Amino acid sequence: MIYLDAAYIAKFYVDEPNSERVRAFLVTEQPAVSCVHAVAEVASVFHRKLREGTVPQVDFDFFCAQFEADCEAGLWTWLPLPENLAHAARRKISQLPSTVFLRAADALHLTCAVEEGCTAIHTSDRHMIAAAPSFGLQAVTWQASLARLNCEHPAIDARQRAAQAAGVGIKYGGGFGHDLRPASTRPHRGKMTPPRLSIAYSFDFYGPIAGSAPETKE
Questions:
Q1: 99, 175, 186, 197: most buried by Cβ count inside 10 Å?
Q2: Which residues of 180-213 are buried (b: 16+ CB within 10 A; e: fewer)?
Q3: Which residues are 2's β-sheet partners?
């Protein structure tokens, strides 16, 4: 089991540098858990990118639909947010030194991870990274996650490099059906078939990514 914050989960959907490798890491590390308020946080990340103009409306709609389908399929395990957890976070906040920058939502994540017996939290948020040690947690960045992935499953990274060089999309095996091409270039299919959780490491290649090198014609 690994605990993820909303920023890490959002990186699973939004096409950014190394997003494909983050997806590969999460396929190998199930179950992936987070406090339930992350559901709203992830949607807010998508909306912020729409508001800032970094993703078009079609991508925003796609991310929201895929996230909903994945939630319904059980890809993410959402931990409850009972009143006693909020009070535990309140008590911890009252003990923090003035030098710790901590938002309420982050405090709930850190407290939830501790209550679940986790020793680390996977995050790409700099404030969460800085605050985690105050809760007795190790902050694991996506860079550290990928370094571990490359050591344990080097074939995954090799296949991804080959796909990138060839300009093709990658579909994870074992029923994990995410199309990793940029959302605006994917054929319209409505919601994807909800993925079946799997730790299979096989990959299928298909389709040139838009903007990649042209296919060689015979």
A1: 186
A2: bbebebbeeeeebebbeeeeeeebeeeeebeebe
A3: 32
Confidence of residue 175 (pLDDT cuts 50, 70, 90): very low
Looking only at the bridges linking them, the beta strands covering 168-172 and 203-208 are: antiparallel
Closest CA relative to residue 79, chosen from 113, 105, 28: 113
d(Cα 98, Cα 106) in Å, to the nearest integer? 16
Report pLDDT digits (tens) over 149-170.
Answer: 555 444 445 445 544 454 444 3
Dihedral sign (CA 200, 42, 4, 84): negative
Q: What DSSP state is assigned to residue 202?
A: -
| Domain spanning 2-153: CATH 3.40.50.1010 | yes
Q: Given this model, what pLDDT does residue 29 score?
A: 75
Amino acid at residue number 49:
K
Domain ranges of the chain: 2-153
For a pLDDT cut of 70, what percent of the chain falls above it?
Answer: 65
